[in-house]
Design goal:
Blueprint: E1 7-9, H1 12-20, E2 27-31, H2 39-43, E3 46-48, H3 55-60, E4 65-69, H4 74-82, E5 87-90, H5 95-108, H6 112-133, E6 141-148, E7 151-153, H7 156-164, E8 168-169, H8 189-194, E9 198-201, H9 210-214, H10 223-226, E10 230-232, H11 235-238, H12 243-270
Parallel strand pairs: 1-2, 1-4, 2-3, 4-5, 6-8, 6-9, 9-10
Antiparallel strand pairs: 6-7
Helix pairs in contact: 5-6, 6-12, 7-12
Length: about 270
């Protein structure tokens, strides 16, 4: 068997991809935030959180390749490189980036055919969602909330998926920012001014509380609140830039937006 034999995955999406490529036997350790597939947490030792890690714990599994993600793990990566390890840092921030990550990882583990098949499957999902969006009565304005204190709007690939599913991201101008701090909505009244038709909460690492949204001053004026269009998508299904974001996150967005479309068509029929 060629390629790396003991891979340390410091972010959830690389673990997910290796399992989908049937290359899980190469995984020596995973991030504690790994959720897809569920069996990964039972089968593999947890060696890191996300932005923090015990370097000795990573070294203890004797990896011949470490897979990391973004500037958020830069300090961890620097320590591992100084320790003499080979590290590959992914930095995908878009849907195309997710698909490219899968192909690159497929090359690293000599599973190019399986990686291409997975990308083809995900592209089919994207195409089907895009086609279905054409039947909406109009494009709903969608406010995606990644965090509540302070308010943080959706990251790049989430904004793209809202568009693919037929919606309009209320804060699309913030989506390209890599840092969450750059996506902070300083004035909550700005959400009211933008009048979203749909509100989706996906609070990273904790359960969304719609009652908290309903209690915000002035938010009763928002069409989404008036129509009961407040929804949750689990952060593990959409905020990790891997296959699940497309398989689960995009499909969940599609379902929410399509149900809104049915509600619109029904209310128009009876008005």
């Amino acid at each position: 068997m060629s390629g790396p034999q003991r891979i340390a995955c410091l972010s959830a999406e690389t673990t997910e991809v290796l399992y989908l490529l049937n290359q899980q036997h190469r995984i020596a350790g995973i991030s504690g935030f790994s959720t897809h597939p569920a069996r990964a947490k039972r089968e593999k030792p947890k060696i890191a959180a996300f932005s923090s890690a015990n370097i000795e714990k990573i070294l203890a599994v004797e990896p011949d390749l470490v897979l990391a993600f973004s500037n958020l793990q830069a300090d961890i990566v620097a320590s591992l490189v100084k320790a003499g390890l080979e590290v590959h840092v992914f930095n995908q921030r878009s849907i195309d980036g997710i698909l490219d990550m899968i192909l690159t990882l497929g090359q690293l583990v000599h599973a190019q055919a399986e990686a291409q098949a997975l990308v083809t499957e995900l592209q089919t999902v994207i195409d089907q969602v895009t086609a279905q969006a054409e039947f909406l009565p109009r494009a709903p304005k969608v406010y995606f909330e990644e965090w509540n204190q302070p308010l943080i709007s959706g990251i790049g690939w989430v904004s793209e998926m809202i568009t693919l599913a037929g919606g309009i991201d209320c804060f699309a101008e913030l989506a390209s920012a890599q840092s969450a701090k750059q996506r902070v909505i300083a004035d909550p009244d700005e959400v009211i001014r933008r009048q979203p038709d749909i509100i989706i909460g996906s609070w990273c690492g904790k359960k969304f509380q719609p009652e908290q949204v309903l209690a915000r001053p002035g938010w009763g004026e928002i069409p989404a609140v008036q129509a009961g269009q407040i929804h949750e998508i689990k952060s593990a299904d959409i905020l990790q830039p891997g296959p699940a974001a497309i398989r689960l996150g995009l499909k969940a967005l599609q379902s929410i937006i399509q149900r809104w479309g049915v509600q619109q068509a029904h209310s128009k029929h009876w008005s």
